């Protein structure tokens, strides 16, 4: 009986940990150079891939900003609502093989994201090799 209870407890703990360690949800973005909180990005799954869109802009002066330098169909659109993370796929503990766009300058970078605990997300944009890039740490919004 004790073995059965122990097994059930371990399975339940594993399931709860897996659910708690999900990248989906809302995240506060912070500029890695200035430390300023910039926006809230909602990360979601669609067709088995991970995407992220801007759902709130924290600086009142930039709430109506448009993505004037963005490529393609995003050019000239409001930053609020724009999808900046596209097509990430789960690979072990990280999600990669997708892109992230900086809506301030329209540049698109390769991207990977990885949880650092339950409430921190390391987001890395890079060109070519992941060594040639920069990382921001976003915090989960409840």
Automatic annotation (TrEMBL):
The keyword Membrane does not apply. It holds the Pfam family DUF2147. Keywords: Signal. Residues 25-140 form the DUF2147 domain. The keyword Heme does not apply. Residues 1-20 form the signal peptide. This is DUF2147 domain-containing protein.
């Amino acid at each position: 009986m004790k073995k059965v209870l122990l097994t059930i407890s371990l399975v339940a703990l594993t399931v709860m940990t897996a659910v708690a360690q999900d990248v989906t949800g809302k995240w506060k973005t912070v500029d890695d150079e200035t430390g300023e909180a910039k926006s809230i990005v909602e990360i979601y799954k669609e067709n088995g891939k991970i995407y992220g869109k801007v759902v709130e802009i924290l600086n009142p002066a930039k709430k109506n900003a448009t993505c004037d330098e963005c490529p393609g169909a995003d050019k000239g659109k409001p930053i609020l609502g724009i999808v900046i993370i596209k097509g990430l796929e789960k690979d072990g503990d990280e999600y990669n093989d997708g892109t992230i766009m900086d809506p301030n300058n329209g540049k698109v970078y390769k991207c990977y994201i990885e949880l650092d605990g339950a409430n921190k997300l390391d987001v890395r944009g890079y060109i070519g090799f992941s060594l040639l890039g920069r990382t921001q740490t976003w915090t989960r919004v409840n």
